[in-house]
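ARCHIVE CARD
Drawer: 12
Card no.: 0347
Subject: one protein chain, sequence and derived structure
Cross-reference: see card 0346
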Amino acid sequence: MKLTFTGRKIDVTEGLREYTTGKLSKLDKFFKDEPTARIVLGTIKDNEYIEAQINSGGMIFRAEVEDAEMFAAIDRSVDIIER
């Protein structure tokens, strides 16, 4: 999966990249061709959010999650897209 990361009011660290890449890589089994993903990580006041959009085979899979912790938001977004 080809990933593009964007940070809004947050620095996208290598740890966040690796964690997100690891979680999203389990979704590769659902796609026949090479999907592309656009990941936006950011903060709003006291909460952190992720916007994940995966394009594959003419379909768009999207999740927006806001949580107090970034890693919890990443986990929930992967669960939403998997569903």
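Annotation on reverse: The CA atoms of residues 6 and 49 lie 12 Å apart. The radius of gyration is 12 Å.
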